[in-house]
Structure formats: C-alpha cells, structure tokens
Design a protein that fits this description.
two-stranded parallel sheet, Peroxisomal Thiolase, Chain A, domain 1, 12-stranded mixed beta sheet, 23% strand, homodimer, alpha/beta, 9 helices, globular
Chain lengths: 332, 332
C-alpha cells in the first residue's frame, strides 16, 4: 500500500512564526528566529505557563506576518510534550480558533503540518495553522529531574529546546508548497534508555524515509536536504547506519538534523544536540522556510521524529516506541 | 465563518468495536458491548498497560468485524487521557498501521472520528480507524488519588469508565454515514473545581451545538438525538440551562449524555455519572451505531466534550478549558 499522500494541488505555507529562548538564541541560527527571549519564564510564574506563552507567541507572530485576522483562521493543529498537552491548550484557549489537539512527541511539527495540509488540500479548511512548542525547563521538570537538583546529563542525552514554531497554510499564495506527506508507523526496537532518545527514534526515521523514497521512486540525490527533526548527533549517525544496513541507501550527503543545527555543540555543551518539538518547529519555520523562499533550497524532505514514551512507561521498564512523520517541502 | 464541514460524499462507518470493564458491563448497556472483561487488569501488570491492552482489544475487534486484514488499514487516529497518550501508543505499537496521535481529553472519540472522516472523504485515506480508551484505575492514579487511599468522591465527580471504542471508516459500504463534522473551540469560563468537569465542559458543548445548529440552519427537533459525551448528570443539566439562557434553544426533548447512560446511577453509586474518553467511545460504537443501523435512530448529533486540564495546571490554580467536537451520524 502506497503510504505517501501526494497532493494534486499542493497547499502552500504563506507565513511562519518562530520564537526561541536564550540558549537557542546564542546558537548558529540566532539571526534566523523571529524572536529570541532572554527571559525564558516569558513573564509567567511556572514553566508550564511559560511554555504556553511561548507557543502562543509563535502562533501570534505567524498570524501577524500572514497579515490577516486570527478570526479568519479556519482551524489550528497543535500539540506539545506536556502532560495532557497543556502547553497547547492553555496557550491557545484565548484564540477562539477551532482547535485540534495532537500528540506526536517531538514529531509534532511534521504531524501538525501534514494534517493541516490534508485539511487545506481537500478544501475542508481555507486557512490552517500548524504549531508546536517545547521548553527546556518544563521538560526537565516533567521528564527528568528538578532543575535545582543539578543532575549530570549523559553524553547521549539531548537538550530540550525552548522554542516554538507555527506555519500558516493555505491553498495558494505562498512560496513554499507542501508537495506530499507521509504518516509514520510506530517502531519499537527495544531501546529502554530514556537518555538515548536518538537511538529510539532512528529506526522510525529510517522506516519513514525509506517508504517515502520507495513510494515516490526517488533517491536521496533527488533532494537538496533530508532533514530529520531531533535525532541529534547520536541518532543521526545511527540513522545513516540503519539506512545503509537495512535498506542499502546512503543519505549522508544530503542529510542534516535539526538537533545538530540548533547549538554550537562544544561551546554550548549540549551533549548529543537539541531536541523537543520546538527544535524542528522553530528551525523549519525560520531558516528552512526562508532558504526555500530564497531558492537556496528547493526540495526538502522534513521528517520529524518522536519518542512516544512517558516517565511512567520508562519506570515500568517499557521500551521506547518511536515515530516519524514526513513532509516534502518544495519551492514554488 | 461556517464551522461545519459537510461532506459532499459522506464517508461511512463500516465496523465498530467496543470493549468495557466489569462495572460498565453491569450497567444498562451491558448487552450492547462486544466484550465485557471482569478482570480489569486485562492480564497486565500495571493500569497503564491494562489501558493499552483495552484499547488494542477494541481496535482488533473492529478490524475483526470489518473482516479484512489490519494491513489494509490506511491510517489510525487515536488518543487517550494518559500522560503522553501512552494508552494509544503502546496499545498500537505492534499494529504497524500509520498512526496519528491526537489529544482531546474526553472529546477524543469525536475528534478522531471527525479527523478520520475528513481523511476518508477527501480520498487521502481508503480505510481509517478512529479509536480511544480510558481506564478507571489509570485515571484515578494519574488525576486523583491512589486507589488504595480509598478517597471519598464529591457528588459532582464522575466515574472514569474502563472502556474503549473504535470505528472503521470507509468511503462507502456502511449503514451509518458521517454526514458532517465540527471542530470545537476551546471555552474557559473560569471553573477551577477538577471534581466538577461537567460544569467545565458544558459551555464548550453549548458553543459547538449552537454553531452546528446555526450553520446548518436546523433546530433540535431535526435530530433524533443530540448525544453529548460525558457531561454526566450535573453537566447535562447545565448544558440545557446554558442552551436556553445563552441561545434560547431548548434541547431537552432530544438530548442525552453518554455519562448518564453508562451506569445505573443509584445502584452503582456513580455520583454524577460516567466519564472518560472510553465512555462515549464504547457507547457510540455499540448501542448508538446499532440503533442507527437498525433504523431506530436516523440522525444523531454526537458531541463529545473534553476538559483540557492537567493535574499540574490544577495545582497551579488554573481554570479548566473545555472543548467539544461534533459529528453528525446518519442512517443510510
């Protein structure tokens, strides 16, 4: 069964928003983001509320750049890592836009973009927004240790980015089209180390990339960039190995990963790189979007990966299921 | 802006699955469900794993009644109440079906049905499954108190159902069509009592029902049933009042609520009734589906409501945002 959904009339991204925190604003992509906030509380009293505000800012920025009123947005697709997705629900409760909550862990940006694109391409929605966020402090608190504990992180651990991104998608009018999308299957190869998410997610990325290439009868050379979301340095190497070993495909010449792009690895001491829904979301909705608009890139296969664990599943000795959703972005 | 999505070629529900626990199997709808399990551990070692298995059983039952192979399912939409939606991700990780994770709290059945219907109606998916689950014990543990604590519940508290439901949706072939859908807007009227979810969700139900009636230029009398999901006894009364007060619409003659239907209120001592994603999911995918197939009901507006809180948001003094998604089911 063909898994790639190719749109007859590909919808387009007409505006984007990207907002990040202090550390992300000190990385190589600092100048690309719409807003860099030194104060990662975003003026709020808790990390969860800070994340809600962060996501809201990215969506508001996208709407502002779109140049129309929020009341003209047909539907909003959003999700995040927080329990019960409160980053999204509290961030967007005042927007008064029909709201579809989604959960895909760090794959959420591709998941929301792909779903929003289906809604717009089919004519069901005129204007859809896809968004997600993550926050270093709310994630550490929820998934790992209280920040005050000052725990040492393992070399394979990634740093959750304080970042959010949003895309406004319409039938036409943008310089970047969503040519086709693919929804991932859950892959679980038995990884149980919650500090090595890259390894848990790499098989899912490999499965999605292989199926995308296979369904579309293309090879890595047909793309300017195959961009994974948040595998980081460890997971990216594993992905290249898996692609070679399991599928005899070499993606290394066109592959990059948002988790590798966000920080200066050594100077910023981020171990295996960046992660979190907001990592890929902020990069795709700034740097990547702009490079395609400016025709420096033309075909970008964006595959965001998510580790579908919870602290409870990890404590119960469960392995980490991974998933990867894909979106082919093309210049117009 | 018209919020109702009316399908030119309405997709149909071709099979359903419903699986419930012991208490639900002792209620008025006992004979309607595909499976009643006395053992609510479902043979698993934790409540979270029990819920995963419960959801999996409902999906497998739906696929079994559909009569085809799981490999022919294009896409699966599912979500649940557990942190990071692990009920769905762990339940479905072995199915090898492209997976879209969704979060809508107790509105999830309408959310997944509506989204799956858009995918099928637009031709993007040939066969889609919509599913969700909830489990009394995993919910109590996560949202309220450890079961062992034996805490007394307030009169406005609802009982989370141990239940799951799944629908197989295809372009044609079923006896029940998804005529149109509406995605809800988040409503927050400032309710902060997490033991009174019905009150938090009623405004969202009212907004969605009003907009559905208004967009389609219909009145309550045009429906055989307006079925809300999980407002329970307290929330249902509030909904009727709100509809009258805010919109001057009397729905009382055609309204019922899944939370009121699941249990014998007095004998089973369930306070304000049933709740949880699985409550509406199991009832719609058994009793309601069958009544429409058998032409006892023809037009059912199913509006599932969700309270988008988390234990953390409640502890931080936040109010409870509600949402309600709607699906118009019609006999063919």
């Amino acid at each position: 069964m063909n898994r790639v959904i190719k749109f007859k009339n590909p919808p387009t991204i007409v505006a984007t928003g990207s907002v990040v925190g202090k550390e992300e604003g000190e990385g190589p992509l600092a100048d690309e983001f719409d807003e860099v906030h030194e104060d990662v509380t975003f003026g709020e009293e808790s990390w969860e509320k800070a994340e809600s505000t962060l996501q809201k800012l990215a969506i508001e920025k996208a709407i502002e750049k779109w140049g129309r009123s929020k009341d003209e947005v047909s539907i909003l697709f959003a999700g995040d890592l927080l329990n019960q997705c409160t980053g999204s629900t509290f961030g967007n409760r005042d927007l008064s836009i029909p709201f579809v909550g989604m959960y895909g862990a760090c794959s959420t940006m591709a998941l929301t973009m792909a779903t929003a694109s289906v809604f717009v391409a089919s004519g069901v929605a005129k204007t859809a927004i896809a968004a997600t966020s993550s926050h270093f402090c709310s994630s550490e608190k929820q998934f790992r240790f209280p920040l005050e504990y000052g725990g040492q992180r393992t070399p394979t651990a990634q740093r959750t980015c304080t970042a959010a991104g949003a895309s406004v998608i319409e039938k036409s009018g943008g310089k970047v089209s969503v040519d086709s999308v693919i929804f991932g299957k859950i892959q679980d190869l038995g990884i149980t180390d919650a500090n090595n998410m890259g390894a848990a997610m790499a098989p899912a990325a490999a499965d999605t990339i292989f199926n995308f290439l296979s369904d579309t009868k293309t090879s890595p050379e047909d793309y300017d960039l195959i961009l994974t979301g948040d595998l980081g340095f460890v997971g990216s190497e594993l992905l290249s190995e898996l692609m070679k070993k399991d599928y005899n495909i070499d993606i290394s010449s066109v592959h990059n990963d948002c988790g590798k792009m966000m920080f200066y690895r050594e100077e910023q001491d981020v171990h295996a790189g960046g992660s979190g829904c907001g990592c890929a979301a902020s990069i795709v909705n700034s740097y990547i979007y702009r490079r395609i608009c400016e025709k420096e890139l033309n075909k970008v296969l964006f595959v965001a990966t998510g580790a579908l664990l919870s602290p409870t599943s990890t404590m119960q000795g469960e392995s980490i299921p991974g998933i990867a959703h894909g979106v082919l972005l093309k210049g117009i």
